[in-house]
Amino acid sequence: MGQSVQFPDNSKPASSNVRGALYPRVTPDFRAVFQVKAPDAQKVQIKLGTTWDMVKDDKGMWSLTTDPLVPGFHYYFLIIDGVQVSDPASESFFGWQRMSSGIEIPETGVDFYTLKNVPHGDVRSKWYYSKVTESWRRCYVYCPPDYNNNLKKKYPVLYLQHGSGEDERSWSVQGKVDIIMDNLLAEGKALPMLIVMDQGYASKPEAVVSTSPSNPGANRQQGGPSTFEEVVIKDLIPFIDGNFRTFTNRENRAMAGLSMGGGQTFQITTRNLDKFAYIGLFSGGTIAPAELTDKSKVKLVFMSYGSREAGSANVKAAADALQQAGIKNATYISPLTAHEWQSWRRSLREYAQLLFKK
Amino acid sequence: MGQSVQFPDNSKPASSNVRGALYPRVTPDFRAVFQVKAPDAQKVQIKLGTTWDMVKDDKGMWSLTTDPLVPGFHYYFLIIDGVQVSDPASESFFGWQRMSSGIEIPETGVDFYTLKNVPHGDVRSKWYYSKVTESWRRCYVYCPPDYNNNLKKKYPVLYLQHGSGEDERSWSVQGKVDIIMDNLLAEGKALPMLIVMDQGYASKPEAVVSTSPSNPGANRQQGGPSTFEEVVIKDLIPFIDGNFRTFTNRENRAMAGLSMGGGQTFQITTRNLDKFAYIGLFSGGTIAPAELTDKSKVKLVFMSYGSREAGSANVKAAADALQQAGIKNATYISPLTAHEWQSWRRSLREYAQLLFKK
User: What is the ipTM, given to two decimal places?
Assistant: First the structure.
């Protein structure tokens, strides 16, 4: 692929491509353009929302231009003669319980997740030992820009969870959590906080290891805590409070999660109101007043959905019920998005602005 | 794939698999066992060193058991009807200028890169602005376990570079830099240091962006500095010294790199002996006394190779020549490994023990 290649559609390489890859490309009207060299394949497809058949030319090059796509991050796969694989031309992202390809479609007129000339925090990978699972686990921690400059300052903490089939990397990679927070902080729209992103899967050593992405922790279980809840309460929070400069009272601790992570947030916060004051469910259901055993402890319930998700229809009634019960709440419906990362990036932007403000 | 599946070869899922994936597997004699469901494919292969043909059964499952493999990390690819892709069942790693699959083959009798119950540092992703490239760049910084506890302590810094087609993630993911350092520190074998891992590719805004993995910075250029050298000297070192608690004198600054990164280390350190006192080349050539303009400034030249690399034959003569010229040096030949990550993990283990000791 030389310098002389012309792209008459004015397309540009997707920002999610690996260094130097000319495909996939994005057109000015937000179509994705794929090209795969596969002279010996009988059928090549792209799975991106729906499954698109690519068309082969006489040199064995398969091509596809999609319809215009919704802005934001989309998982996709290459399907070669029926085998679903990731595309080596794009970055891989842990989603769908495997290394998936992703493509970034720009959104016109917004820059809240654009890397800008503002002070930058960092994202740290931390190993911690879980007594609950009897294993080492890894979490990621976003530290705001001033964390290293002001060594006596303490910070509130948001625990932020990924969705089913994703992991502790997802919020910082797909979600661009550090860029969103750095930008909000630079604009004075949010307060500095730590954001802890853990893996929402946990098994006790005696248990059969679940290989299914539908972890029981996602359900609104009756009865005892999920193993993940035990990890958060017994291992993760003490580790974070012991190794970072945090405020350790409940008024300075929030949780949120997307999809399965929203279910886990519901379960963990409502069962542990002595530890959390802020609850955020992103595409993760709603909360009824009766589900909050001690309303006085809840500083905020935040519920969001993409407007194209069925669940979005339930948000207003749920908010009204909380309002009538005297429980402070906020809602957000992400315009024209579905169950996808653009809904959750926007939800984080909204939720983060409401946290820890007295 | 249920609990009842039997594996008569006593194989276990590779540690490099994604969560829950039963394949690829590793046998007790270190063969890799692959299985891919592809009923409609005509030919499925694994590229792992050489290219292996898989064999199809009557249910469309393709299988392969390799010969015994060298311990350590190996890149591999799935080839489906001639298209080289990464395997969604394994983690992906940036190598070969794309997201590649990798498989980890255990090494009997060593645990220097095993996650253990020792104090753990962290790896931080940091954004910094390069005036040279006029762009934001990302580096990773390993901070030793006591970095956050002893807030007045300053640290020496090792700048550690990846090879061709890799990036700033490679040393912490493929190289397990944090685990190797945490273990060495726990044993008292190395001194605490920061390790900065940057992307060894850089282009000035006016330049044609190179899409080739063979960056000019890899060559031992005559003439001016490479763009990457300019980034390191003008942007990266000032950023690190401005944002971390570092010793900023040359006696507390080292550089090393593998393969292309060794070439870059040679170029940058020998051209900037006012800034570096320790030079490490891992599978990255040798240094002759005449190439060091001021021998008195060099605290150590370290040269290593895998024993199966042609370059390993040159190491002893190069070391002898340095010795005769009165230049302190150390060498390491990694037993039975080639141009691969196990050589470089071991080289880091050796090199790190020699750094910053007066």
Answer: 0.93
